[in-house]
Amino acid sequence: xxxxxxxxxxxxxxxxxxxxxxxxxxxxxxxxxxxxxxxxxxxxxxxxxxxxxxxxxxxxxxxxxxxxxxxxxxxxxxxxxxxxxxxxxxxxxxxxxxxxxxxxxxxxxxxxxxxxxxxxxxxxxxxxxxxxxxxxxxxxxxxxxxxxxxxxxxxxxxxxxxxxxxxxxxxxxxxxxxxxxxxxxxxxxxxxxxxxxxxxxxxxxxxxxxxxxxxxxxxxxxxxxxxxxxxxxxxxxxxxxxxxxxxxxxxxxxxxxxxxxxxxxxxxxxxxxxxxxxxxxxxxxxxxxxxxxxxxxxxxxx
Length: 302
Known about the structure:
The protein is of the alpha/beta class and 302 residues long. It has 2 domains: 12-28 and 84-283, von Willebrand factor, type A domain (Rossmann fold); 46-81, no CATH class. Helices cover 42% and strands 22% of the residues. The chain has 8 helices and 10 strands. The protein has a 6-stranded mixed sheet, sandwiched between helices. A two-stranded antiparallel ribbon has the order 1-2. Strands 8-9 form a two-stranded antiparallel sheet. Strand 4 (127-133) and strand 5 (137-144) form a beta hairpin. The mean pLDDT is 87.
């Protein structure tokens, strides 16, 4: 049975939001991110072209020392880009993403971040696609090129109404492993409020360049003193009454959140997965720039 989203035309409001996001993110890409993206991801698919004599300005690391020794003066290797890169955006649309207490929901931040990364990719003539997931794969935009393709991707992110509310990153990674036949840059955009992350992330990172984009809201870290409060899990619907005025309850909550955060950070490090941590109450520009510059310094992607 087809999804109810399949035949739904985008509303004028969705189209207006797409245009606003394009204008905003295109400006950021043109002024900030395009060069940084290029510096990080250029040359992941490089093919040997020829050897020629060294010329002033050539990088020392490109010198072919064997040919140089035979000829008695420096020669360098030249490469050409073998093929365009593929960028895949795996975006979590589960119930916990429809939460925000300051200026926007986590899902809104995920959409704008996706637009920035997609715009940077097409600016460099790369292919970009998207996979939207909850505890199932909700929707897939296969990798493609061009402005029209990216606008369709952003439109789908804005307009898609998830059919489920849970989170299953394992199902998303299984689908990606079947879909992606070549090494791909995979951005997983989620709050990672889920269990059983290690195995699927490890399998995906063994074949692809995986980057975790962790989205948080400041109110998730602290339990406010508000007396007896009923909390409802946005993914399961389970409700529980909590006495938030009890100091020990608030302390245990914060300790558990810190432990989960530390465990997730250590997991990403063990699996050599870079993390970009963003928050709904702050700009994502600086975290993205830090990510790009850190990768340049480590030489990843060259």
